[in-house]
Amino acid sequence: MVKDSNTFNKLKIINDPVYGFIKIPYDFIYDILQHRFFQRLRGIKQLGLTSLVYPGATHNRFQHAVGAMHLMSSAVAVLKSKGIDITEAESEAVHVAILLHDIGHGPFSHALEHSVVDRLSHEHLSLLFMQQLNKEFNGRLDLAIKIFKNDYYKKFLHQLVSSQLDMDRLDYLRRDSFYSGVTEGVIGSDRIIKMLHVFNDQLVVESKGIYSIEKFLIARRLMYWQVYLHKTAIVAERMLVKVLKRARFLICNGSDVFAAPHLLYFLRNSISFKDFSENEAVLEKFAQLDDSDIMSAIKVWTHHDDFILSELSRAIVNRDLLHIELKKESFDKSKIKQIKSKIKQDYGLSNNDEVSYFVSVEVIENHAYSLTDENINILFSGGVIKDVSKASDILNLSVLSKNVKKNVLCYPKALRNWVANLE
Fold this sequence. Notes:
By secondary structure, this protein is an alpha+beta fold. It is built from 21 helices and nine strands. A hairpin with a 3-residue loop joins strand 1 and strand 2. Helix 4 runs parallel beside helix 7 (155-161) and helix 11 runs antiparallel to helix 16 (307-317). It starts with 12 loop residues before the first strand and ends with a helix.
């Protein structure tokens, strides 16, 4: 007997290099996976230009989303085995929510988050994609959207999707460690998930899992400074932002700049949340964007008549990046002024705005644990709840929660010896 093609063989198996075989848990999940909005994530690198540092880090947002969904399946199964009431509808919805939590990412993920669409985060765009999918699937995502927005009465379901111990973080730490080869990021995600519980509608970790949580927080701190905020990745991504800024400037001033039509649309126009909300065509244009559009344009821009655009594009394509210095203290203002003056003269630039494409000063910061977000709570016998920073005998609260700041100075490599003589 031939089964209906709409229901036949949707519970497929995906072979994932991190977890092994991943089962698609619901027919509806398969339908979302096959949707063009979700398939575009195959063309968006998880770690932006970090592959310029760690050549293996070329994995994409599609893989991460599927991995996070897999961990959600494990978490739901564990919680249900401990008597936590999760209906089939809620289970499907929380799977959909985690699967789509990053669907709003644009090309190169976080690297260009506010460059293609200004002042609009990927979380906002993810919600817009979910709402559009909800229209196409006749309201099937209603509950998933409520969970995603934290509007559903079972708050622990939202915590599984977005918190300081969500399935998103558990997957990206393990996955990014795997693909980058940085073993400091390896975490015991299986152990952590098996220790999850719910107490007073809050996601908690049983006390037996505290050591796994300690390692998770330490791994997160190490991965940020060793991978996510690696100095070469930082300078490469800043240059990527600047090359798009220059292209936008030239286009807005009447210059002919090559790009795919859907990329040109966002370079020519300043698109707001209102534009997305009121015109479905804008979201469709955004859904066509991925890393290949940016890199194809940059390759062409290496031959553009504009010196700034061509020089920055060539540097990215050839990995001939700006020199970068990081330190705790602020950089001397007179030194920065001299560097800018030297570049302006050597490159024949006309104003400080043009100089800013080749010299940048900024501050980067990160902390492993936030005291202002929902805490990671440890459940002890007798129903005693303690924040992990107070329950642990090795974690230093002041170190975990402190924003570690580093000052960044970038300028052309050709000036390194000249700058060294200034000091």
